[in-house]
What we know:
By secondary structure, the chain is mainly α. The chain contains 13 helices and no strands.
Amino acid sequence: MTTTIDTRAAGLSAPTAASPYRLNFVRLVRSEALKLFTLRSTWWSLGVTVLLATGISLLVAAVTTSLPEEIRAQMTVNPMSAVVSPLQFTMLVAGILGAMAITGEYSTGMIRSTLTAEPRRGAVLLAKALIVSATLIVTTLVTSLISILVVTPIFGSDGFAWDDAELTWIPLVWAIISMATFALLGLGCGFLIRNGAGAIAATVGILFVLPIVMSLFSFGGESWQWLIDLYNYLPSSAASGLTTNPTNETVRNVIVLLAWPAASLLGGWAVLRVRDA
């Protein structure tokens, strides 16, 4: 009996070989990509984004080219305006996808495994932000190319061409950046609230509900002008300004567009550091 106990004790005290694997930042980013793309909700969201954006672009192109000549002369009608027009709708899908990218881990408890494998919580947030933003950038770029193929024949029969000197690609660049910032805004709300329904509600409220509410005060007269002015400092308003008229208040719109996701991610990082998973 004594010999058996000593043998077990010796076995327990024997040194174990160190694992050759280390979780560096590249592997952390890869693990976050695997977690995001193995969710069916991710592919549903991306599919809805592609179909919604392409369909709206097609409708806008068809409607604008069917308008009378005197009305179209007063409008900015070109292929680019049709391609970026779905932004006000697809931004909701981007924000919801960003929120679900983290709240799902809190609902299943996977966040504990994530933080155990990588105790540096800021690195976890940064890795998720990189994957989510890259996903929306690629998706928006692919969607825009599809929309271009769809609307070009419609506008081409009416004298529009993509090599027109008056046509600028700047709105498309801002549309791609805007979709990434909307997703990061949702991701930050997810880290802050840690609940899927709450994070989605907060994201939709900021991107969609607040602009509608503030626009209602335009009937209130000068006494509510301060609230109407705040409308220009909403992320959706900044994105709209950059994609429809990039030369007007560009600096302000860029700051507003980047400040919202930055604030939500910083708040999420602060909460992640001080609260248990």
